[in-house]
């Protein structure tokens, strides 16, 4: 059977998107999903996202990492599915959709999507790293020069260390401050098991970690990633972060069909 798909990218974090409102695509076929995401044997993507019907909201997002397994929230994928829902005429410029971590408000203007993220009220602050969950788990390390880091090697070492092995792993973010409100970020993503060009829940975690550790006082943080620029805004009251929004581009890059077999 041939399955129509669309490819989107959000700051270089790329995804295969499928309209699964008719429930034709099987969610349990890990092998097929990882093959579709394979950059040599398939379409190639950091993840695959299904848009499904729900009676709770405008639509439902189901996210799989490129290893074929369903995972926790994907911020850039969330921004891409909003652009996809607009393309499919399910929404106009504003929406509320449901994902694995709950309801998300979002708006889209031209190709820029602003996505509401879950509140953050628990941050583990250690001398050499911070850990927080922004829909997905994130380890944040501030370093002198992020360009000098071997993200795959060092990220994988932390991701598979005793810190996270028993809790299903973590994404690992390496960060260098550029100026009072701007940070350069490189992320090792769990489930891709490599550096990606951007990670939405990752930059959200970095913005909050930077504010929490007094590296910045701004509540509108600029994040430079390999695939472009993102920004994160939030409110903070007594160490509780609310009204968190991840902002940046989400662009359709092509449409195609793949064979549903492996
Ligand atoms: N690319 C994502 C994060 C996707 C989830 C992550 N790989 C995990 O399994 O925790 C983003 O933009 O947030």
TrEMBL record:
Give, as in the UniProt entry, the pathway in which the protein acts.
Amino-acid biosynthesis; L-lysine biosynthesis via DAP pathway; DL-2,6-diaminopimelate from LL-2,6-diaminopimelate: step 1/1
Q: Biological process GO terms, please?
A: lysine biosynthetic process via diaminopimelate
What's one Pfam family the UniProt record gives for this protein?
A: DAP_epimerase
Active-site residue list:
74, 199
Alphabetized UniProt keyword annotations: Amino-acid biosynthesis, Cytoplasm, Isomerase, Lysine biosynthesis
Q: Catalyses which reaction?
A: (2S,6S)-2,6-diaminopimelate = meso-2,6-diaminopimelate
Q: Which SUPFAM superfamilies match?
A: Diaminopimelate epimerase-like
Note the site residues: Could be important to modulate the pK values of the two catalytic cysteine residues.
138, 189
Supply the EC number(s). 5.1.1.7
- Summarize where substrate binds, as residue positions: 13, 65, 75-76, 171, 189-190, 200-201
Please name the top-level EC class of this enzyme: isomerase
Q: Which InterPro entries match?
A: DAP_epimerase_DapF
What is an example of a GO molecular function annotated in this UniProt entry? diaminopimelate epimerase activity
Looking at the UniProt record for this protein, which Gene Ontology cellular component terms does it annotate, in alphabetical order?
A: cytosol
**Any idea where this protein resides?**
Cytoplasm
Major place of localization? cytoplasm
Briefly state the protein's biological role: Catalyzes the stereoinversion of LL-2,6-diaminopimelate (L,L-DAP) to meso-diaminopimelate (meso-DAP), a precursor of L-lysine and an essential component of the bacterial peptidoglycan.
Q: How does it assemble?
A: Homodimer.
Family, as annotated: Belongs to the diaminopimelate epimerase family.
Q: Under what name is this protein listed?
A: Diaminopimelate epimerase
Q: Which organism is it from?
A: Aurantibacter aestuarii
